[in-house]
Amino acid sequence: MRFRIDSNWFYDRVRDWKLGEIILKDKELILMFTKEIEDENINKVISWDMNMFTMDGFGDEIGVVKKSIRELYRIHITYHNKRRKVQKMLNKNPKQARRLLKKINKREKDKVRDFIYKFTTELAREFSDYIHVFEDLNKEVMYNRSKKHNRSIALHNWRRIVEVLKYKVKVIEVDPKFTTKTCSRCGSLDTIIRNGTVICKECGLKINRQLNAAINIYLKGKGLKRTVQVWNKLIKPRLKMWGVGVPPNGAKSNDMPPMNPEGVEDDVAQGEVGQIWVTLSKFVQLPQTP
To answer: Where do the domains of the chain lie?
Structure first.
């Protein structure tokens, strides 16, 4: 197939851009163009921790950010259940079953692609002047012996989200090692993870695990060490932007466990530390000061 783009209405807008991915659909052709972003115009950083239903972020000037991707998970589960029903027909009517499976797979693929392109466009527009930092995750090291866990990992499109976003904003990826387990305040690995909360035995910080991971990714993206001094200067002021108070009784994160390459298990141990919490449904408990 050959086609010319220099005679089309959009050509002047993309004259200096490079042609990237080409997507052929039933009734339309989608062309992706890329252009190098001038780094000197971008000095703000926003990090993203990829989870089952959300992308939890932390960025310069804005502090804590949360974006829902629950719809993407819903699409996968819906078509996963449809496939299971059709697969029961394979023995009785294999030809019809295969035809239906092919149709189901295509519809799922189209809906997922549509969601990802719209979601990343919204993300790029809202945070166009930021460098976006993600973990360089690999699904192969995230599988374990749990069928439920492996199915959830297989259904997630975090890699596709990152790849599509690269066409629209500047993206860098960092080593995901210990981003959940490491204390984002002092850098200690002597932590406990219980009920979605990271508790540091070294400095006494108690923080939501997704927020802790997002802050660690943020610090890695900026090339900064995790120290109390860095926390007090860069992190704490942005957490205070959301106000402080006491969390409601039994307050918990309502998200599924994160895309966790470390395989960290929740620990039942519990420690007693200070009394200051940050709201926005993401809780941080700081150690008491003398």
So the answer is: 1-35, 36-285
29 is written with which tokens?
Answer: 């052709």
* Rounded Cα–Cα distance for residues 243 and 241 (Å): 6
Is the CB of residue 199 less than 8 Å from the CB of residue 191?
A: yes
Q: What is the pLDDT of residues 122-138, one digit of tens each?
A: 999 999 999 999 999 77
C-alpha pair distances (Å), 11 with each of 41, 77, 133, 167:
25, 39, 31, 18
* Exposure string over 141-180, b if 16+ CB within 10 A, otherwise e: ebeeeeeeeeebbebbbbeebbebbbbbbbbebbebebbb
Rounded to an integer, what distance in angstroms lies between the CA atom of residue 166 and that of residue 34? Answer: 9
Whole-number pLDDT of residue 140: 61
Q: Which residues contact 157 (CB under 8 A, 6 or more apart)?
A: 72, 112, 116
- Residue 176 makes CB contacts below 8 A (sequence gap 6+) with 135, 136, 137, 261, 262
User: Cα-flanking dihedrals φ and ψ of residue 258, to 5°?
Assistant: -70, 170
Q: In angstroms, rounded to a whole number, what is the distance separating the alpha carbons of residues 199 and 285?
A: 9
Q: What is the largest CA-CA distance in the chain?
A: 74
Specify whether the CB–CB gap between 52 and 258 falls below 8 A.
Answer: yes
Beta bridge partner(s), residue 135? 174
In this prediction, residue 268 has a pLDDT band, given cuts at 50, 70 and 90, of very low
The CA–CA distances, whole Å, from 160 to 115, 138, 285 equal 11, 12, 34
Q: Which residue has the tokens 């991915």?
A: 21
